[in-house]
Amino acid sequence: MPDVDSKPIQPLIHIGYYKSGTSWLQRNVFEQPGSGFGGRSKGEPKHPIRRFVAEPLFGFDAAAWRHQFAELLADPVRQGLVPTISWERLAGHPFSGGWDAKLIAERLAEVFPDGRVLIVAREQRRMIASVYKQYVHAGGPCSVRDFLRPRTSSSRRVPPFELRYFEYEHLLEHYQGLFGPERVLALTLEQLAEDARAFVRQIGSFAGARCDDQFVAGLPVGQPANAAIPPLARKARRVVNKLVYRSALNPAPIATLAGGESFAGRVERLVGRRTRRFPFNDALDRRLVDWIEQEVGDRFAESNRRFATLTGIDVGALGWTV
């Protein structure tokens, strides 16, 4: 066992965002032999990375956490791999406006001051549509209109959904200030979709991982990690959520049903199987994105121009509003 207290921990810290290729990277890159990356990358229920989110505000002990993670990440280091942590929750949660994203970033910087940070963003209109679909799948009862326009109060008793969460330059600049610009890499989901092999090579070069050519050549290009839920299944799930599924997103349904979560899931799967091949699914999904486009307009244009300046990525050519 190496002297964990004397060696700096230099992991790749992939913080997300949500719905921006995280599952694809975890399954096809970070957890695969030949990628040059190693370690338990996901935020599994018992993975200590979850403490960065769950630890009470005044319970943080950077020195103790640094020692614990040094032991956890020592094995991939001995194998010549880049120790990797990948969990989209580290960028904050979109359902609650990313209220703790700044706090998480500061905790990560204290525990891993020599780490390198990977951020993957996505064009906002499609990102918001995908986040809304996940909200319903997780138990949310609101229509997309109510989801995007939550009721708030000046006392901010509960963190609400906020469109500002999708102004990516704020979090990017904060990480650059904490770790240094040379230790933060920001990419986009659109780049992954356009050329997955170049995308992975860029991450490997940034992190110092030895991605061998055979591994990169064998990447599953064009295969999404998570299948989309058909629109009618999503609508059915939202109705069931509102009626009987008590969850963190809907603490007071109209009626409480024992096993409400499993019942909602069964309804979603049943309707999904029967409607997956319906020819109008694409049109319904496009309608959702169109409505979101009308709702947000060009509010992200200035933010996207700033993001492009910070990253050198021509996001306008990738379909972002600029």
Task: Explain how this protein is built.
The structure is a single chain. This protein has 322 residues and is α/β, with parallel strands linked by helices. Strands 2-3-1-4-5 form a five-stranded parallel β-sheet, with helices on both faces. The N terminus is likely disordered.
What's the arrangement of secondary structure elements?
Layout: E1 12-14, H1 22-30, E2 37-38, H2 51-54, H3 62-72, H4 74-78, E3 82-86, H5 101-111, E4 116-121, H6 124-137, H7 144-148, H8 169-179, E5 184-188, H9 189-194, H10 196-207, H11 213-217, H12 231-244, H13 260-275, H14 281-296, H15 301-311
Parallel strand pairs: 1-3, 1-4, 2-3, 4-5
Based on the model shown, name its key terms.
322 residues, alpha/beta, disordered N terminus, 47% helix, single chain
